[in-house]
Design brief:
379 residues, alpha/beta, Alpha-Beta Plaits, Rossmann fold, 6-stranded antiparallel β-sheet, elongated
């Protein structure tokens, strides 16, 4: 087997959510081709050779044994998946993503489909400046000059500005900047399942709501008016204690925390179940506790329509849940949406999963993760 070669790639975007397109391309390269060993800063530059919106540009390094022509095909597949439409009539055009191979180790390659080193890299500051971040002393095998020298000698005087935006090698690294992700949803929405999958896939500390032993819950479903207040108060006390304990003890071997609930759900459920005077008293206690707890960096709300919720509740076959009325679930859904609408201090992402099955379908699961990535890129 051949030894892996260090490959330097240039990435650019000037259409739509440019930061997300670049970040998503990097994740697909890491997933489909090879892990990323180095990432440059993110630069902004004017479009080169045509009039259009400014580009975001970066360079990355990967190590792979994949032959150069196979690598090119895989990169073109990624471009196509991300909406790249190639101009086959010549000339430059705007694009969601552009991925170029700059160097393939120190090899010189000339074929009908590929020229390496990239024939124009020494002419473009938007390539050279990010490349100098990760390969300042790498020598061009034909020009026999390193990247720093080529930056100084380049005749391109267009503006290339380093931004404060950051790109991440992995989704795990991106999510870690959020510190804490809360997955929320109605009864039966799948929040525990999703939180568990995220924890396993992205090395997160998993925080699960503990409610099975609450003695008031089965009684509440039999007689809501009588048991609503003791149920909500006991839930609040349990959640506050657990939440405080779990979120204050960060695991050094985990990248971030993910939970299948946020303590704010206590207020949402209480508003639905309690009488007006009971709720006023409850809210005073809640506000006191809420000041002390860790707030999520990302709050993901899984929306499912009532019919799907009832299907899911029936499947998981918890005796005390089987008689939950439809209008109760609808009130909870409205309560969450009203909370989200008014919660300006929460970074909230709503994902409609009524037509998704992220347990059975890997594509549906990837769709949810991609939505989380897209939202997180802007934070």
């Amino acid at each position: 087997m051949n030894d892996p070669k260090t490959i330097y790639l240039s990435l650019g975007s000037n259409l739509g959510d440019k930061l997300f397109h670049l970040q998503n391309a990097m994740f697909k390269i890491a997933n489909d081709i090879a892990s990323i060993s180095s990432v440059s800063s993110l630069y902004e530059s004017a479009s080169w050779g045509f009039e259009a919106d400014n580009f975001y540009n970066c360079c990355i390094a990967i190590n792979t044994t994949l032959p150069a022509n196979e690598l090119l095909l895989k990169l073109q597949e990624i471009e196509k998946k991300l909406g790249r439409e190639r101009n086959y009539y010549g000339g430059y055009s705007s694009r969601t993503i552009d991925i170029d191979i700059l160097y393939y180790g120190d090899e010189i390659i000339e074929s009908d489909t590929l020229t390496i080193p990239h024939p124009s890299l020494q002419k473009r500051q938007f390539v050279l400046k990010p490349l100098s971040d990760i390969a300042p002393q790498f020598y061009h095998p034909i020009l026999n000059k390193d990247t720093r020298n080529m930056v100084q000698m380049c005749k391109d005087k267009s503006s290339v500005t380093k931004t404060s935006l950051k790109l991440h090698k992995t989704r795990e690294q991106l999510f870690s900047k959020l510190n804490f992700i809360a997955i929320e949803g109605n009864i039966g929405a799948g929040k525990t399942t999703l939180a568990s999958k995220i924890a396993e896939d992205f090395n997160a500390k998993l925080i699960l709501e503990q409610f099975a032993d609450n003695p008031f819950l089965p009684k509440f479903y039999e007689d809501q008016a009588r048991y609503a207040f003791p149920l909500e108060m006991s839930f609040l006390a349990e959640r506050y204690q657990q939440f405080t304990d779990d979120t204050s003890q960060f695991d050094l071997f985990k990248s971030f925390m993910v939970s299948d609930y946020d303590i704010f759900k206590s207020l949402i459920f209480a508003k639905v179940t309690l009488q007006e005077e009971e709720f006023k008293l409850y809210r005073k206690v809640f506000n006191f506790m809420h000041k002390e707890i860790t707030k999520p960096g990302l709050y993901v709300y899984l929306y499912q329509n009532t019919a799907r919720l009832l299907e899911n509740i029936k499947k998981r076959d918890r005796d005390y849940e089987q008689n939950i009325p439809q209008d109760y679930l609808e009130k909870i859904n409205r309560g969450y949406l009203e909370f989200i609408k008014g919660a300006q201090d929460h970074n909230t992402l709503i994902i409609d999963i009524s037509e998704l099955d992220f347990v059975a379908s890997e594509n549906d699961y990837d769709f949810i993760i991609e939505k989380m990535v897209e939202y997180s890129c802007g934070k």
